[in-house]
Design a protein that fits this description.
Elements (H helix, E strand, L loop, with lengths): L10 H39 L4 H10 L3 H8 E10 L4 E7 L5 E9 L3 E8 L4 E8 L6 E10 L1
Antiparallel strand pairs: 1-6, 2-5, 3-6, 4-5
Length: 149
């Protein structure tokens, strides 16, 4: 009958077990402390509101100048519509008004219009080149630029 001897744990295993127990006990302590901190934060925020209703807080925030109330005024869109004869092509350039800069562009059509290329041609202008591949129908195209500034 063979009897195997139980070996002592290596120093690395002992250190790893100590680290595991410390980490687990730290989580248990934190679980008891966090609800207390949340309760204190809620009490502090309630004091800042001064008894105002949520509707009153929203109304007061809407009256203040800032990014939320002025961002919509920074962005604008400029659109132009045109038609292209059968088997024809056309270049359309759109510019932003009043020192605004172009940040994007797009187009739509009701026919067999293909975009041969579109790109910014400076800080304030975007150029499109369209072709109508229909043999019989004139097609409408609408191009737009999005400006900021």
């Amino acid at each position: 009958m063979l009897i195997s001897k139980i070996r002592r744990p290596s120093p690395a295993l002992v250190v790893a077990l100590i680290a595991l127990f410390v980490a687990l006990s730290g989580t248990a302590v934190a679980a008891g402390v966090v609800p207390l901190a949340k309760r204190a934060l809620n009490a502090d925020n309630a004091a800042k509101l001064g008894g105002k209703t949520p509707a009153a807080v929203v109304q007061q925030a809407a009256q203040l100048p800032g990014p939320a109330s002025t961002a919509g005024g920074l962005v604008s869109q400029k659109t132009v519509s045109d038609s292209i004869a059968p088997n024809g092509s056309k270049m359309i350039s759109l510019s932003c008004d009043g020192g605004k800069k172009v940040i994007g562009a797009g187009w739509s059509s009701d026919g067999a219009i293909f975009d041969l290329g579109n790109h910014p041609t400076g800080d304030t202008t975007w150029t499109f080149e369209f072709a109508n591949f229909s043999d019989t129908a004139t097609s409408a195209v609408s191009a737009y630029v999005v400006c900021i500034g």
